[in-house]
Q: What sequence folds into this?
């Protein structure tokens, strides 16, 4: 159809992090591609990893200049009111989605291992995985129907095998993720700020329909900053407690620092429960946030009002 | 002349028009796929917004395609692991990874770490958990510790030409001990079966396909009474007879050990007093079971390193030491393999006492192993044989899907 400004867009206008330039400037004068647009395009391709990636996977067909000229004639109307914001870098998207099945496998295989300790209830009810204080136990985890439902009984060796296989993927992915945050500066969008706590409370109240009016946010609001940073620390906690359970003699000082072997197991278990709780809240929030937000975790781009400030400022700001 | 030029021009224009039409058609088809909303947006509005949306759709389509391929790849990876042929009861990639992890652990820690020790008053009586190799009481006087692969073994008075000819004497259990293992199901109050006894020379319910292990897939739930076919029973009887009517070895779930000694293997037959002549040690450490539980236990006994120093392994022709040590119970039902280095660890203990008292039969009297750098399933009870070897020895629980290394 006419009216699709294919080339100028490739030239970086609507996708560009910079505020949208007036289209008129482009369309007027020469019918050929605006000389201003091309350098931007070249710069974008060279410096931004997403265009580089997409170019590598599926080459973008470049229409012949004649077509561009024809199409540009038809797009005299005003500038777009929306634009594409590059929200999630490619590396973060990959590591986020790799982490999902890997963490799931760790939790599932951990349950298969844990069943072995939980089930000997007739002689030695498990002391570690329970809710209680001192001698008072409110709940022992988990009830028999749960074990049956997830088909956990007598699969310990499978659980151990998977746990000690996928631990590497979990650790490597986590280390790469944190390294990327640090190197790219993306951590600035993630680490809680001074106002994050206040914002987080406000956001939570709004989410619970107790209050109206979200505080201004850029990439993440205060609650997100706190939750996402916390879950990264929890991942680190799982690695450390996991190591202290895995090699309690060789790294006994770590185990001792964590309060001993049983305590480390307790911590490892409740961190896992924390991941599960995070997962539930996270999925609910993503559903509530809608398609535009979810899509950005896959494609990297979110459709935002053209006037909205770009995230690049937040990324590069110090 | 001019006709020809015009014709060419016309053709050229026609070609251009067709190209453009093709492109437009393609795009139309794309929009069809995009769904009603997008098409309406792009046509009706004819605004730059539609272009932005189109660009978004294009990127989304591409990303979801990549995501789908990646997800399929991830699932394929999982299937590959899950469907791989088994290596000692777990898929080969998992087994390979366990071996790799062991290599990493050896490289990083070298099994040099010392387990923390505790005051005696923090210790408690160890749970009983598994009675493989202990189905009957061993007559203490008949106990000998076989040692194979000892350097210049002939110089020791305990040398014999065939250690396997030694006959251990068994008696029916006088005391069953606490019945604590294998309680994955509620114990039946009326049942008088003593799960520790199996007085019939180890041919009790576990051997008949009954619940043998708490840790292996499926086996704990089996309940059927296996009736062996007559031909098989006859063959078994013949086998027994040919072995001097000795009880066949390897009568538990994992079966016969591949590392068990051939008849006619020379070595030493040590008495318990030979073991007791080593310097006595006390050790209070945390015992850790791979099932997940742990207990601080007070052990008394003798350093395995001291035994090895007294009866050192024979060097290979190139002067190096054999890499491994193999141990098994006198009846060969339970067996473990170790690296020589793990056995030389200062906390690897030949335990003869627990909680300040001599070991009971159900805890592996007269000598069991305590090794705080390994899980409990490596800490073999009632050690009948210690053999130096250069090939990685068979291991009971490894055969049933567990890690051979089991290093803590």
A:
């Amino acid at each position: 159809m006419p009216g699709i400004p294919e080339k100028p867009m490739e030239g970086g206008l609507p996708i560009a992090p910079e505020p949208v330039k007036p289209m008129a400037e482009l369309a007027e004068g020469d019918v050929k591609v605006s000389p201003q647009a091309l350098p931007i395009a070249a710069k974008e391709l060279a410096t931004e990893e997403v265009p580089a990636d997409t170019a590598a996977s599926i080459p973008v067909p470049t229409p012949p200049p004649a077509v561009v000229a024809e199409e540009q004639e038809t797009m005299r109307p005003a500038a777009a009111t929306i634009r594409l914001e590059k929200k999630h870098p490619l590396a973060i998207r990959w590591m986020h989605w790799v982490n999902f099945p890997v963490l799931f496998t760790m939790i599932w295989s951990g349950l298969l291992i844990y069943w072995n300790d939980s089930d000997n209830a007739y002689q030695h009810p498990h002391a570690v995985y329970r809710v209680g204080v001192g001698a008072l136990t409110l709940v022992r985890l988990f009830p028999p129907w749960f074990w049956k439902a997830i088909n956990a009984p007598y699969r310990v060796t499978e659980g151990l095998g998977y746990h000690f296989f996928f631990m590497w993927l979990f650790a490597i992915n986590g280390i790469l993720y944190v390294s990327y945050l640090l190197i790219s500066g993306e951590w600035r969008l993630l680490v809680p700020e001074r106002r994050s706590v206040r914002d987080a409370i406000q956001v939570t109240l709004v989410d619970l329909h107790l209050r109206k009016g979200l505080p201004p946010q850029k990439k993440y609001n205060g609650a997100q900053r706190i939750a996402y940073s916390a879950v990264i620390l929890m991942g680190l906690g799982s690695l450390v407690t996991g190591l202290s359970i895995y090699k309690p003699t060789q790294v006994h000082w770590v185990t001792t620092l964590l309060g001993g072997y049983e305590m480390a197991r307790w911590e490892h278990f409740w961190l896992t429960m924390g991941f599960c709780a995070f997962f539930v809240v996270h999925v609910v929030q993503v559903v509530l946030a809608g398609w535009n937000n979810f899509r950005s975790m896959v494609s990297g781009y979110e459709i935002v009002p053209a006037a909205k400030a770009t995230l690049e400022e937040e990324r590069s700001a110090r | 002349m001019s006709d020809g030029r015009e014709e060419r021009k016309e053709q050229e224009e026609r070609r251009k028009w067709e190209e453009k039409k093709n492109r437009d058609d393609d795009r139309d088809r794309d929009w069809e796929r995009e769904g009603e909303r997008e098409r309406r947006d792009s046509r009706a509005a004819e605004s730059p917004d539609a272009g932005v949306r189109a660009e978004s759709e294009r990127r989304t389509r591409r990303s979801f395609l990549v995501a789908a391929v990646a997800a399929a790849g991830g699932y394929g990876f999982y299937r590959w692991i899950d469907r791989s042929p088994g290596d000692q009861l777990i898929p080969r990639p998992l087994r390979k990874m366990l071996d790799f992890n062991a290599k990493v652990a050896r490289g990083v820690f070298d099994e040099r770490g010392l387990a923390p020790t505790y005051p005696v008053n923090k210790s408690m009586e160890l749970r009983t958990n598994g009675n493989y190799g202990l189905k009957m009481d061993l007559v203490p006087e008949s106990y000998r510790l076989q040692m194979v692969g000892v350097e210049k073994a002939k110089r020791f008075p305990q040398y014999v030409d065939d250690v396997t000819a030694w006959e251990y004497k068994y008696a029916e259990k006088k005391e069953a001990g606490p019945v604590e293992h294998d309680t994955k199901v509620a114990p039946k109050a009326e049942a008088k079966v003593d799960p520790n006894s199996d007085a019939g020379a180890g041919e009790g319910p576990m051997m008949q396909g009954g619940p043998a292990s708490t840790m292996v897939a499926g086996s704990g739930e089996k309940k059927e009474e296996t009736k062996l076919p007559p031909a098989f029973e006859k063959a078994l009887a013949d086998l027994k007879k040919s072995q001097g009517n000795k009880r066949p070895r390897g009568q538990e779930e994992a079966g016969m050990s591949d590392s068990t000694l051939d008849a006619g293997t020379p070595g030493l037959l040590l008495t318990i007093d030979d073991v007791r002549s080593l310097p006595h040690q006390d050790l209070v450490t945390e015992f850790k079971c791979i099932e997940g539980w742990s207990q601080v236990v007070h052990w008394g006994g003798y350093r395995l390193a001291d035994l090895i120093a007294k009866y050192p392994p024979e060097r290979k022709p190139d002067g190096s030491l054999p890499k491994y040590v193999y141990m098994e119970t006198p009846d060969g039902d339970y067996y473990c393999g170790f690296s020589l280095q793990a056995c030389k660890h200062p906390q690897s203990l030949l335990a003869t006492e627990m909680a300040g008292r001599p070991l009971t039969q159900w805890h592996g009297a007269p000598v069991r192993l305590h090794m705080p750098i390994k899980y409990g399933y490596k800490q073999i009870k009632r050690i009948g044989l210690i053999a130096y070897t250069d090939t990685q020895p068979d291991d009971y629980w490894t055969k049933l899907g567990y890690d051979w290394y089991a290093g803590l």
Summary: Residues 189-224 of chain B have pLDDT under 50 and may be disordered. The first strand of chain B starts at residue 86 and ends at 87. The radius of gyration of chain B is 34 Å.
